[in-house]
Design brief:
Length: 710
């Protein structure tokens, strides 16, 4: 008989916790969920108040039997799964399997996996929080209903195997609509006029900002030429000088969302990878002299709050390493609506500086740990300070109009937190730039060196990256930070979205699916609806609403919409795009269809004629070598390349043009090592599917190092 049995989610977490407890304690892992809704059917009894029909997950029978044996052989069983809604639900399922009474004090959670925290929490068990469990049940049941009820409509009208989701479909909609904005965007011309001026041979730059002290905008070259003529022989007089100081404060400690965004920007990590690496750092890493320890606090949090103990250790570290003037006791306000159950993400041991334990970490672990560590320490440091100067310089000429130029400068005089860490941003700003201008005095004349007019055009909104999509989802209240990784992975895996470098681009399949969903389920694939549902889940977790009532209120109008759409679309076929390519088997014009990997050509005479062909996307420009058409193809990883239609070994004299880069009109093409696509690159077939010898992903065990599903 053992004294205590502690059940966690992952083996690595179990190994870390074992060493903190006595010899008569056993720590085992459930390896994620042990019960879930069945995959083969809806699994929700809508006729009997939406009762979930949970079953034991296939392949976990032996694990469940082992857990039952261990529980019988233990005086006390503690359920120490992750400290969030999903972890609470896993603990509830474990209690059911093991026959633990609902009022038993069996639940323990660790915000950080350190010896002190683990030993303290084991002494303070509590009941399973049914509010948190019910919030997770509400999400799971609603997502199952939406997915299993809407997806069959996609199967009928587009193709089998597609899926819709309460949150994933909204994410796709954001990306598709952004692409529509880009395609519809019409650039507008505008100009800037820059002046290079000098005082005592010290040059500085100024920009035309106004005319007769009123803001001016330049739209074309004619307007610019008129101004250049007006000020051709003008003098430049300093009319106003303002000096000041500016402070720049550090960013707060990471939340899940800001960690995902910053790791994407600074490290190039996909969101899924960030969560996987962070989970490993939380669960435990073997460090020399300390053994296996959790290096960061729990990485699923909306809070920027920091414990007083961690604050004190940060102060000690900063004052010893950088000096007193670099420390500032700083508190950050967690935004309204955020879940504040856990601290912000921070290192658990301040003394374990990233470079000191680099040899104990994988390269990815080191990069992310360093990011988290530096961000936290910087959050408790003094602001950076700048000296600023702003000057207005006016023209004086025979012209009746006075043109106003502005010159701005700033000089960093104290780096403060920037000694250690500076946050990246999606949009570049001038905040980090140092631009010096000489000491200027009102009414003095400065010398004109040259005038530099620059033509520009307005640019369309940028495509989403993983980082900017996460930011948008969070701002709009769609999903929760712990679900963002699975949302993005799902829409990419379903081939609704593809990554072009770092940009998220909707595929043709994604556009078709989005169009069908928006036209028929606009009240479901809706930002406001999705955000409101998240707020209702939050109220369930706080005990303010009953989870089944949330499902009831959702289901009645949803069912009405579903029945209406199903009836309206019963005899409606999506209009296929007809091409001018003739089917060589039956003479019909072939149509565009959508497969897993994108477009392909099919004969509309199916099933009588089953002819299919790869869809060849063409570009307008001709081959720079032979003048033939150029096709766009993709590698197995989805990277685009360009190939001449005459690049075929079947031809007597095949053209050798194949390049990562699109041909440029009028430029001669010379193959270079960096540009040419390797000869092993082959076009991925959109019409055939080889049998895979690998196991289906559905048979793999849920990894707790992966981000949690929505």
């Amino acid at each position: 008989m053992i004294d205590k049995l502690i059940i966690v989610e992952s083996p690595s977490k179990a190994n870390t916790i074992k060493k903190f407890l006595g010899s008569n304690v056993k720590v085992v892992a459930s390896v994620g969920h042990i019960r879930d809704l069945p995959k083969s059917k809806l699994g929700v009894d809508v006729e009997h108040d939406f009762e979930p029909e949970y079953i034991n997950i296939r392949g976990k029978a032996k694990l469940i039997n082992d857990l039952k044996k261990d529980a019988k052989n233990a005086k006390t069983v503690y359920l120490a799964t992750d400290p969030d809604r999903e972890g609470e639900a896993i603990a509830w399922h474990l209690a059911y399997i093991l026959g633990i009474p609902k009022d038993a004090l069996c639940r323990v959670t660790f915000n950080e996996i350190t010896k002190e925290t683990v030993q303290k929490c084991i002494k303070q068990p509590r009941k399973i929080d049914m509010n948190l469990t019910d919030a997770q049940q509400a999400r799971r049941v609603m997502d199952r209903i939406v997915g299993y009820k809407i997806s069959p409509i996609l199967w009928k009208k587009v193709k089998r195997g597609l899926s819709a989701g309460r949150v994933q479909s909204v994410a796709v909609r954001l990306i598709v609509e952004r692409e529509g904005e880009i395609e519809a965007f019409i650039p507008e011309e505008y100009w800037n006029l820059f002046a290079t001026l000098s005082k005592n041979d010290e040059k500085f730059n100024a920009r035309l900002s106004g005319k007769n002290d009123k803001k001016i905008e330049l739209h074309n070259k004619e307007e610019v030429d008129k101004i250049l003529k007006d000020i051709e022989n003008a003098k430049y007089i300093v009319t106003n000088v303002k000096k000041g100081t500016k402070k720049r404060t550090p960013a707060p400690p990471f939340t899940t969302s800001t960690m995902q965004q910053e790791a994407s920007r600074k490290l190039g990590f996909p969101i899924k990878k960030t969560m996987s690496v962070a989970q490993g750092l939380y669960e435990g890493v073997k460090v020399l002299e300390k053994g296996s320890v959790g290096l960061i606090t729990y990485m699923r949090t909306d809070s920027t709050r920091i414990s007083e103990e961690a604050r004190a250790k940060a102060k000690e570290h900063i004052t010893q390493k950088y000096g007193d003037k670099y420390y500032e006791n700083r508190y950050y306000k967690t935004k309204s609506g955020a879940q504040d159950a856990h601290e912000g993400i921070r290192p658990t041991y301040i003394e374990l500086e990233p470079d000191k334990i680099k040899d104990s970490l994988t390269p990815d672990q080191y990069k992310l740990y360093r990011l988290i560590y530096n961000r936290f320490i910087a959050s408790q440091m003094s602001p950076a300070e700048y000296d600023t100067i702003s000057a207005q310089i006016d023209t004086k000429s025979t012209c009746n109009d006075i043109y106003n130029f502005k010159a701005n400068g700033q000089t960093l005089k104290f780096k403060g937190f920037m000694t250690l860490y500076v946050e990246d941003k999606d949009e570049k700003t001038d905040e980090d730039d140092e631009s010096k201008i000489p000491e200027l005095v009102a009414n003095e004349e400065v010398k004109k060196e040259k005038l530099d007019p620059k033509q520009s055009f307005t640019e369309p909104p940028a495509r989403y990256t993983e980082a900017s999509l996460v930011k948008a989802l969070e701002e709009k209240g769609i999903g929760r930070p712990s679900t963002y990784a699975s949302i993005i992975s799902t829409i990419i895996d379903r081939h609704y979205i593809e990554k072009n470098q770092k940009q998220l681009v909707p595929t043709d399949l994604g556009k078709v699916v989005n169009k069908l969903l928006v036209e028929n389920f606009s009240n479901i694939v809706n930002v406001e609806f999705t955000a409101d549902i998240e707020n209702q889940f939050d109220k369930v977790s706080e005990g303010e609403e009953q989870w089944k009532q949330v499902i009831r209120e959702f289901y009645t109008p949803f069912k009405q919409t579903l029945d209406k759409v199903d009836k309206e679309l019963e005899h409606v076929e999506l209009q296929a795009e007809v091409t001018d390519i003739v089917c060589e088997k039956c003479g019909r014009n072939m149509v565009v269809k959508y497969g897993r990997y994108g477009k392909f050509l099919a004969c509309p005479g199916y099933p009588e004629c089953k002819n299919i062909k790869p869809f060849e996307e063409k570009i307008e420009d001709q081959c720079p070598v032979c003048g033939a058409e150029v096709y766009v193809r993709k590698t197995k990883r989805g990277k685009k390349y360009f190939i001449c239609s005459n690049n075929s070994q079947k031809l007597e004299k095949p053209c050798n043009y194949i390049s990562w880069n699109a041909p440029k009109v009028g430029e001669k093409w010379e193959p270079s090592e960096n540009e040419v696509v390797p000869k092993t690159t082959k076009k991925k077939s959109t019409t055939t599917k080889k049998k895979s010898t690998k196991k289906s992903s559905s048979t793999k065990k849920r990894s707790t190092t992966k981000s949690k599903s929505n």
